[in-house]
Amino acid sequence: MLPWAKANLNPTGQALIVCTVAGMAYFVAADKAILSLARRHSYESAPDHLKDTSFHGGAAAAARPRPPAFFRP
């Protein structure tokens, strides 16, 4: 606790400062963890078979009529 806060603030104000700092530290740590996971599992580092997101269909897809051109990707 800061000496100024200890001398000039009541216990509620001191607790508010401590909780705010603890919450900020928690947010920074969580943000770092989320960003590191996002970098580790990014699209660029994925294998090629997972990067291909196009739909290839199959026998059942050939039997259905094709949608109009403005619906096709």
Notes on the structure:
Helices cover 62% and strands 0% of the residues. The chain has 4 helices and no strands. The chain has helices at 3-8, 11-40, 48-51, 59-63. InterPro entries: Enod93. It comes from Aegilops tauschii subsp. strangulata (Goatgrass). The chain crosses the membrane at residues 12-30.
- Which outline best applies? elongated
Structural class: mainly alpha
Average pLDDT value? 79
Largest sheet: none
- Total helical elements: 4
Q: How many strand units?
A: 0
**Secondary structure: helix percent:** 55-70%
Distance between the termini: 60 Å
Order of helices and strands: HHHH
Beta fraction: under 5%
Radius of gyration based on Cα positions: 27 Å
Low confidence ranges: none
Key terms:
73 residues, 4 helices
Describe the structure concisely for a colleague.
Residues 54-73 are annotated as: Disordered. Keywords: Membrane, Transmembrane, Transmembrane helix. The chain has helices spanning 3-8, 11-40, 48-51, 59-63.
